[in-house]
Amino acid sequence: xxxxxLLMILGFMMAAGTVQTVRAVPAEVTACGQVLAASGEYVLxxxxxxxxxxxxNGVTIIASSVTLHLAGRTVASxxxxxxxxxxxxxxxxxxxxVKIDGGAVSGFNNGIVLSSSNSVVExxxxxxxxxxxxxVQGSNxxxxxxxxxxxxxxxxxxxxxxARVASNNxxxxxxxxxxxxxxxxxxxxxxxxxxxxxxxxxxxxGVAIFSGSGNTVRRNAADRNDFGIRISSPGNQANNNxxxxxxxxxxxxxxxxxxASVRRNSVFGNGLSDMFDxxxxxxxxxxxxxxxxxxxxxxxxxxxxxxxCLR
Length: 311
Hints:
The protein is 5% helix and 43% strand. The chain has 311 residues and is mostly beta strands.
């Protein structure tokens, strides 16, 4: 009888909308070197200054299904020592479903290392890492709507499979906005702003594909870098990008990039040439539907947009 009465009261409360689901309060991250070893939701409770704190990361995640809310706060370190493991946030390999959002990471060797799979970094400002702003490994990871500036490289896919780097501001990094290496495959780089990378090094790129195949670079704005887009590994494509005002070359396919597909890009006002194919007669690369003014093939002018293999 008592149990029936309680069930009846609960039914009345639910009908009246007075029963609410109580969410667990996120656990707090309060100190440099903290390790998140259990699944769940975490929040950065205060700014962390990890300068000179030793051979460990700002925050280390070793469990799947972790969400870390930076909550508008910053994890920072002025230390750079490539002989030590110094990352602002390090996510271990073999994990899945990790999410980092909403704050800033400044300094360290690497700002964020994302070695897990099916994971997301979004809405984070990553700056002043001496090596990589965000290093992406694993598979099916997403890096979106971040501001990534003043790092060695902005985002490094090394190695990564089926990652998506989308709608980020990747500007003012010392080398590349996005660099793809270590046989990374099937990644999509789309809808990013890639400006002023490498201005002090003469080796800066909006996007550079050094190793890997099946990668797509599309709908990005790559302006005022040293080089806009470089493809140096076979089987990749660059489509529908706007590439302008780069001090050296707009879109560059090296001999190691054959075959590449370069379609429907708008490429104007670049220093040495808008379009550059290192291979004789374009070496099997497909250039179609591009808008440009100046071009080079195998080191010599190719006659502009209406002649030759660059179209």
